[in-house]
Design goal:
The protein has 188 residues and is of the alpha+beta class. Helix content is 46%, strand content 26%. A 4-stranded antiparallel sheet has the order 3-2-4-5. A two-stranded parallel ribbon has the order 1-6. A hairpin with a 2-residue loop joins strand 2 and strand 3. The longest helix is centred in the N-terminal third of the chain and has 60 residues. It starts with a helix and ends in a 6-residue tail after the last strand.
Length: 188
């Protein structure tokens, strides 16, 4: 009986050692999955907010009838900036461009930008010909945000020296109250 009890005790001791080894092997993988899940969900949230900021910016810029002032565009940019008030976004930049098609050619009528983030000019959309008709304007709003993952950023800084990335979204919209929207004091 003692012999059987001794075998059982040795077997239990060897199992606890195996469990400790398995735990030590599995723990880093589980922690990395957990950190990755948190950072991925934060990235999706920030990306959605950048998209919302660009949509809001295009919407607010297109609300004026026929003529918009630079102050009104700056207010629209300030409104879009409020969307990105979060700690994962270290800097953001906002850009507006108004495109007009006349006699078969499309040109930039005015542009406005602001922010201390990454360079983010609103570029001509690929489907601009489909969006415009002669005498109509299209407002293109672009938002770029410098993003740092909350948990993985510390690991990325340690391993790679940097862990920031740029999230960029561009939205095209038409003016709401008229076919064209001029801004006499805005840059081209």
């Amino acid at each position: 009986m003692r012999r059987a009890f001794g075998l059982h005790a040795r077997w239990a001791a060897s199992q606890s050692g195996a469990a400790a080894v398995e735990f030590a092997l599995v723990l880093p993988v589980v922690v990395m999955l957990y950190v990755g899940l948190i950072d991925t969900s934060d990235y999706v949230s920030v990306s959605r907010k950048v998209n919302h900021a660009a949509t809001s910016l295009a919407n607010l810029a297109g609300r004026s009838e026929h003529v918009v002032s630079p102050a009104a565009l700056d207010d629209a940019i300030a409104g879009a900036q409020l969307t990105l008030q979060m700690e994962s976004v270290s800097a953001a930049s906002f850009s507006l461009r108004n495109y007009r098609t006349a006699e078969g050619s499309t040109e930039v009528v005015w542009s406005r930008s602001s922010g201390a983030g990454p360079d983010c000019p609103a570029s001509e959309p690929d489907n601009l010909d489909e969006l415009t008709a002669s005498g109509n304007d299209v407002i293109v709003a672009a938002v770029c945000a410098r993003y740092s993952p909350p948990l993985g950023g510390k690991i990325g800084n340690f391993v790679f020296g940097s862990s920031t990335m740029t999230i960029r979204t561009q939205v095209a919209s038409r003016p709401r109250e008229s076919d064209t929207l001029d801004c006499p004091d805005c840059a081209q």
